[in-house]
Amino acid sequence: MESAASEPCAPALPAPALAYLEHVRVEKRLAPRTHTLYTLDLQKLAGFAQAAQVELLALQPAHIRRFAAQMHGAGRSARGIALILSGWRGFFQWAARQGLVPMNPVEGVRAPRAPKPLPKALGVEDALQLVNHVNAEADPWLEARDAAMAELLYGSGLRVAELVGLDVAPGPDTERLARGWIDLAAGEAHVLGKGSKRRIVPVGNAAVQALHSWLAIRAHPIAAGALEPALFIGRRGARLTAQSVWVRLRARARQAGLTTSVHPHVLRHSFASHLLQSSGDLRAVQELLGHASIATTQIYTRLDFQHLAQAYENAHPRARRKR
């Protein structure tokens, strides 16, 4: 629950605020819950104005910025502040149309940036448990395909769109239809990433072996002429969709005994995190992931630091806390 310790108590709303609330209730036909939220936003604003000893309609951008900072300091989330500012902005836009204020003091005031959450990555043991899992009771065709997909996602750090966009080999339509392909002889995947940027990523031995096993049975028992050039296909020969990959990967994780929710991007994050832990080469990880900016890749250094900090906490005599 967000703290509001430093936020002032709400006084009675002045007439302009009440007129605005009546306007939005009648004109916009707001749901009762939404109207209540508008009211709470204006009560909060009136409380801040009273504490600052400023009339509501005399507030300036500096006041609004200070109020936003106070809410942030009180523990309110960036999203919560943004919603409150939106409510205030609507009130002052109406007040300006009514000629009650010369300008909107909330215009241009933005909420603090929300911290970027760390990407979720599996531990090395969990990742290996997933890709090494063999379901002896599964359909061999599905098991071979799903094993190859898991190996390629974790071993090469592909996005799910890049995975389903791969063809078995380059053909006359590969470039025209903006697809990638696999070159098993060279151990490479030619990938079409974001912004239609092509890159080449290595395919490890485990993934190469899994792909050979899959390609050996891929065409069976699909009817002749129904088979697409796609590397990963469904039972009817059509290119597999990203949604299907999500479903199959989630099922494979459950079968492997993982309690963590696993989806394709988790394996991409795991690829990047584990590679960075081992090599420390941020530029190489950037190239392999296809990030346009190194800043995007740097978030994995935070994951790497967490890993190192945990290792220190667990192993160093001076880090052990008294029980």
Apparent shape: elongated
CATH topology of the largest domain: hpI Integrase, Chain A
CATH uppermost class of the largest domain = Mainly Alpha
What order do the helices and strands follow? HHHHHHHEEEEHHHHHH
Strand content: under 5%
Structural class label:
mainly alpha
Main-sheet strand order equals 1-2-3-4
The CATH architecture of the largest domain comes to: Orthogonal Bundle
Helix content: 40-55%
Radius of gyration: 28 Å
How does the major sheet shape up? 4 strands, mixed
Number of helices: 13
Task: Kindly give the count of domains.
Answer: 2
* CATH level-four homologous superfamily name of the largest domain: Intergrase catalytic core
Task: Report how far apart the termini are.
Answer: 30 Å
- Uncertain runs with pLDDT below 50, 5 residues or more? 1-5
Quantity of strands, as a count: 4
What would you say this structure looks like, in words?
- This protein folds into two domains: 15-97; 124-313, Intergrase catalytic core (hpI Integrase, Chain A, Orthogonal Bundle).
- Helices cover 52% and strands 5% of the residues.
- It has helices at 15-27, 32-51, 61-73, 78-97, 124-132, 140-156, 160-164, 205-217, 242-255, 264-279, 282-289, 294-297, 299-315; strands spanning 166-167, 180-183, 188-192, 198-202.
- The two termini are 30 Å apart.
- The model is unreliable at 1-5 (pLDDT under 50).
- The active site is at 159, 194, 265, 268, 291, 300 (o-(3'-phospho-dna)-tyrosine intermediate).
- Residues 11-96 form the Core-binding (CB) domain.
- Pfam families: Phage_int_SAM_1 (PF02899), Phage_integrase (PF00589).
- Keywords: Cell cycle, Cell division, Chromosome partition, Cytoplasm, DNA integration, DNA recombination, DNA-binding.
